């Protein structure tokens, strides 16, 4: 079996990479549980649910691990807005996420790993990066990864370290950073924020470090497949590579990277400000779950999907047509069976 590798830009022989075994270790970036999951999220999780089930049908023994980001700036911000705790926000939206998974038939995941259950592993990895000179402390702020120390930073997204300076997606801001693209590994506690008291000081993990700490715990420093949405390629997945390969000294961190394409709504990126944000719950109020699975399955996982009500209605009509055809086949089969039984009884 051949799988397209986002890192090499080529199709890779999975059987050769597995070196004769059928055991596949797969990690897919899970949700940050601060809001209702939307159909763009669903596109990725349904796609990997289908991919994993297909691999298993071909005899591969897949262990599918997915993280849950249950501590993050976005969670803390929402908790402040709602005058509640970050833990309460995370618990509420994780529950909704799992309800949506069940509704959409997403059940291939073997383990969901909450970031807050891996604080010891996260601290241990930050300490390893400090010891090897890849991390530094900004007093009163936190520990950061120095991307200038990792010579191949940008190899997944095909960017240089200097080109990484233009990143705008969830890059940690701090006036004390050595490079604009440097990212937080451990954020020191500010008033009212949740924290863990560790050897690094009272604080909480950065966004990127949780994934490599979780995968090292379950898979070791190297594993087979890593998946996620295309918009996570940079800087999130780039940061994961930099962290793990620097901490362990082993390459490659992941053998094959898989990225799902974007889901647009009427040609535009989904956004609450544009009024085109469609939660999974909103979708399921109008259409059966199988409609969304069909839309995802009918597009190549790396291709973009331009969602619209017209597309959803066409998918619904197609599925109804298939259901009617199957009902006719069942009717004919049952009728033939009755005729054969009658003939057998009268001869």
Task: Kindly describe this structure.
The chain is of the alpha/beta class and about 350 residues long. The chain is built from ten helices and 15 strands. It has helices at about 15, 40-55, 75-80, 85-105, 120-130, 210-220, 235-250, 280-285, 290-295, 310-345; strands spanning about 1-5, 10-15, 25-30, 60-70, 110-115, 135-140, 140-145, 185-190, 195-200, 200-205, 225-230, 255-260, 265, 270, 305. The strands form four sheets. Strands 5-4-3-11-12 form a five-stranded parallel beta sheet, with helices on both faces. A five-stranded antiparallel beta sheet has the order 6-7-8-10-9, covered by helices on one side. A three-stranded mixed beta sheet has the order 14-13-15. β13 (about 265) and β14 form a beta hairpin. α9 (about 290-295) crosses α10 (about 310-345). The chain is globular, with a radius of gyration of 23 Å.
Summary?
With 347 residues, the chain is α/β, with parallel strands linked by helices.
Describe the strand arrangement of the main beta sheet, using strand numbers. Answer: 5-4-3-11-12
What does the overall shape look like? globular
Main β-sheet description = 5 strands, parallel
Which structural class best describes the helix and strand composition? alpha/beta
Number of H/I helices? 10
Number of DSSP strand runs: 15
Return Rg in Å: 23 Å
Distance between the termini: 53 Å
The residue ranges in which pLDDT falls below 50 over 5 or more consecutive positions are none
Average pLDDT for all residues: 93
Helix amount? 40-55%
Could you state the order of secondary-structure elements as H and E?
A: EEHEHEHHEHEEEEEHEHEEEHHEH
């Amino acid at each position: 079996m051949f799988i397209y590798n986002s890192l090499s830009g080529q199709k890779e022989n999975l059987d050769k990479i597995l070196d004769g075994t059928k055991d596949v270790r797969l990690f897919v970036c899970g949700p940050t549980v601060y809001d209702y999951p939307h159909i763009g999220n669903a596109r990725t999780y349904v796609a990997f649910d289908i991919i994993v089930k297909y691999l298993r049908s071909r005899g591969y023994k897949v262990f599918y691990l997915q993280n849950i980001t249950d501590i993050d700036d976005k969670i803390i911000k929402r908790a402040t807005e709602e005058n509640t705790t970050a833990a309460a926000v995370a618990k509420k939206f994780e529950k909704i996420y799992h309800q949506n998974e069940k509704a959409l038939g997403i059940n291939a995941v073997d383990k969901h790993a909450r970031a807050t259950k891996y604080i010891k592993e996260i601290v241990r990895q930050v300490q390893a990066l400090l010891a090897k000179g890849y991390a530094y402390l900004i007093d009163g702020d936190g520990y950061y990864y120095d991307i200038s120390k990792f010579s191949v930073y940008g190899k997944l997204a095909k960017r240089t370290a200097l080109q990484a300076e233009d990143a705008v997606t969830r890059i940690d801001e701090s006036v004390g950073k050595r490079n604009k693209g440097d990212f937080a590994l451990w954020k020191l506690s500010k008033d009212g924020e949740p924290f863990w008291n560790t050897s690094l000081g009272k604080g909480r993990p950065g966004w990127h470090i949780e994934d490599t700490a979780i995968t090292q715990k379950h898979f070791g420093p190297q594993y087979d497949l890593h998946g996620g949405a295309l918009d996570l390629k940079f800087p999130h997945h780039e940061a994961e590579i930099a962290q793990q390969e620097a901490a362990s000294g082993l390459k490659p961190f992941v053998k094959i990277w898989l990225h799902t394409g974007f889901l647009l709504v009427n040609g535009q990126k989904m956004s609450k400000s544009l009024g085109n944000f469609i939660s999974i719950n909103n979708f399921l109020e109008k259409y059966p779950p199988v409609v969304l699975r069909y839309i995802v399955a009918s597009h190549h996982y790396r291709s973009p999907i331009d969602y619209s009500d017209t597309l959803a209605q066409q998918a619904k009509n197609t599925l109804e047509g298939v259901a009617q055809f199957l009902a006719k086949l069942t009717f004919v089969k049952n009728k033939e069976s009755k005729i054969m039984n009658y003939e057998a009884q009268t001869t």
